Amino acid sequence: MPRSGGGWLPHGFHLHTHSHVQGQLVYAAAGALATTTARGTWVAPANRVTWTPPGFDHSHRFYGRTDARLVIIPAELCDALVAHPSVFAVSPLLREALLALTDRREVRPGAHERLRAVVIDELAETPEQSLHLPEPRDDRLRAVTDLLHAEPGRTRTLTELGRTVGASERTLSRLFHTELGMSFHRWRTVLRIHHALVHLTGGRSVTDTATECGWSNPSSFIDAFTEIVGQTPGRYQAELRDGRRFSRPSGSAAR
Fold it and tell me: Pfam families, alphabetically (predicted)?
């Protein structure tokens, strides 16, 4: 297993479910990716990096033409990071360390280990910013979330969804809180933000993205996006353009 690597991947590229005995960081220097485990899906736009600890079955899907960077964290070093899959914000220092680690040939012995130590130190000091969409176990709730996944932009109340799957609004509302740890409205909003990130990464306008993802007007979409992602859609797209402009050529494809 290589310590690092990277490559440009086409839109929609999918790595099927697999696991590793080491930890794995995947960073989209340009583009975006989604990491899915049994616990749900984590989305990482170009200002975040995904973390998957050893032993977790997971898959990746890439959105937009993605400059994907892979950094392997040996199992003996993984205790320094959280013990569950997550997404972390990428500081300027962390970005440069990830890029250098994945596109720079090791000239001096130990150089990669020192860079990797910088990455671990930065992640240990960085709060999680998960953009996490948990998935249910209950069959009734899963039927509802499947409908929402299929049509994230369609506006249906929980009562209407309940009629479709044969469960009451009260039961479904309780299940959203007990199984997923959030309200129906919050879960659907995070789902829509996931889709919005994909649209924005692909170059769709903020107004078109808002409409397609279920918001009645761009301002309410901008408010929701900013609250969850931490920046406006316009700023996110500007940073994507900057990332593509300054992203350096990388070596072998991530895997």
Answer: HTH_18
What pTM did the predictor assign?
0.82
| Amino acid identity, position 81 | L
Q: Got the DSSP string for 154-214?
A: ----HHHHHHHHT--HHHHHHHHHHHHSS-HHHHHHHHHHHHHHHHHHTT--HHHHHHHTT
In sequence order, what are the residues at sequence separation of 6 or more whose Cβ sits closer than 8 angstroms to the Cβ of residue 148? 161, 187, 188, 191
Three-state DSSP class for residue 120: helix
How would you class 4 by CB atoms within 10 Å of its CB: exposed for 0-12, middle for 13-18, buried for 19 or more? buried
Per the CB < 8 A criterion, the answer to whether 32 and 50 are in contact is: no
Report the C-alpha gap between 30 and 241 in whole angstroms. 8
Q: Give the pairing type, strands 14-18 and 86-89.
A: unpaired
- Among candidate residues 101, 123, 148, 149, the one with its CA nearest the CA of residue 50: 123
CATH 1.10.10.60 maps onto the chain at 134-240
CATH node for 134-240: 1.10.10.60
- Average pLDDT value for residue range 138-160: 96
Residue 226 backbone dihedrals phi, psi, to 5 degrees: -65, -40
Region 4-132: CATH code = 2.60.120.810
Q: What is the DSSP letter of 65?
A: E
pLDDT digits (tens, 9 = 90+) for 84-123: 999 998 888 999 999 999 987 888 888 899 999 999 999 9
Residue 23 has pLDDT above 70, yes or no: yes
